[in-house]
Amino acid sequence: MSAAPSTPGAGRYAPSPSGDLHLGNLRTAILAWVLARRTSRAFHLRVEDLDRVREGAEQRQLDDLAALGLDWDGEVMRQSERGAAHQAAIAELTARGLVYECYCTRREILEAPSAPHAPPGAYPGTCRDLSEAERERGRERMRELRRAPAVRLRAEVSSWRVQDLWAGEVTGPVDDLVLRRGDGVLAYNLAVVVDDAAAGVDQVVRADDLLSSAPRQAHLAQLLGLPAPEYAHVPLAVNREGARLAKRDGAVTLRNRLARGESAAQVVGRIGESLGVAGCRTAADILERWDPATLPSDPWIVDLPG
Ligand code: GLU
């Protein structure tokens, strides 16, 4: 009997519906699709709509991705519909003593002296070991501020290692990250872990501003008994000054380019050229011609005419 083929997992693209996708987002989406399809994985789309939602943006984003030639498997997952699974994960961590309430304001966190040996920017642990009386005072204060306490992970490690397709082995800090915010919104770092695992995602392709979050997320996955995905963080798109590409940089979205008389095929062509392959007209051309080993490690400098 021959060995059973290993089940291909899935890749995904997970945009936040806060506006139209710009060229950098579109390039990341194409790379996520290409890497998934190259490895016979399924490809899923997840709308990260827990926060920062702009009316109509979701449908526009999906239409733009389709216009570049991307397709996806199954229904689009909406993070806002996943509340029960997110709460179940928090309940499980709570039952294991792995969470605590945090009564700090953002300002207090910024102004607090950092804990010894803590990585820069890490939560200083102010609320980690409070007495019950101190917690009661904290809750009282939250009532006055009309906020709920945030819920934080009681991290048991200070760093964690992940595997990235291009960056290789990356070890990064893990702190007592927020799992549920004071306004009741579930934190991105928890949602991403729970939702990727639920969809069978084992390959996470996204922009490299999130590389530093990967160790936290992989550690959280481990605590929840979920497999960590392999990561592939793609360099950001920047403007001529080297700042992250944004709306103020002009005609940077697909729709802007179409309004300037470019075709979707020409936009794919630009993205292909940024990857070192000329003459691509659809995402399928990039799938066929691009070698992932050649991904430039520098940001993509988007320098558009007009
Ligand atoms: N929603 C995030 C973004 O649009 C991406 C999160 C992820 O891919 O893990 O930047």
**Largest sheet data:** 5 strands, parallel
What is the number of domains?
2
Under the CATH scheme, which class of the largest domain?
Alpha Beta
Mean pLDDT score: 94
Which class do the helix and strand fractions yield?
alpha/beta
Spatial shape: globular
- The tally of beta strands, per DSSP, is 12
Instruction: Look up the CATH topology of the largest domain.
Output: Rossmann fold
The H-level CATH homologous superfamily of the largest domain, spelled out, is: HUPs
Terminal Cα separation, in Å? 62 Å
What strand line-up does the widest sheet have?
3-2-1-9-10
Secondary-structure element order, N to C = EHEHEHEHHEEEEHEHEEHHHE
Instruction: List the total number of helices.
Output: 10
CATH architecture of the largest domain: 3-Layer(aba) Sandwich
Q: Which value, in Å, is the CA radius of gyration?
A: 21 Å
The low-confidence runs, each spanning 5 or more residues with pLDDT under 50, are none
Give structural attributes.
single chain, 3-stranded antiparallel beta sheet, alpha/beta, Glutamyl-tRNA Synthetase, domain 3, 10 helices, 17% strand, Rossmann fold, 306 residues, binds glutamic acid, 5-stranded parallel beta sheet
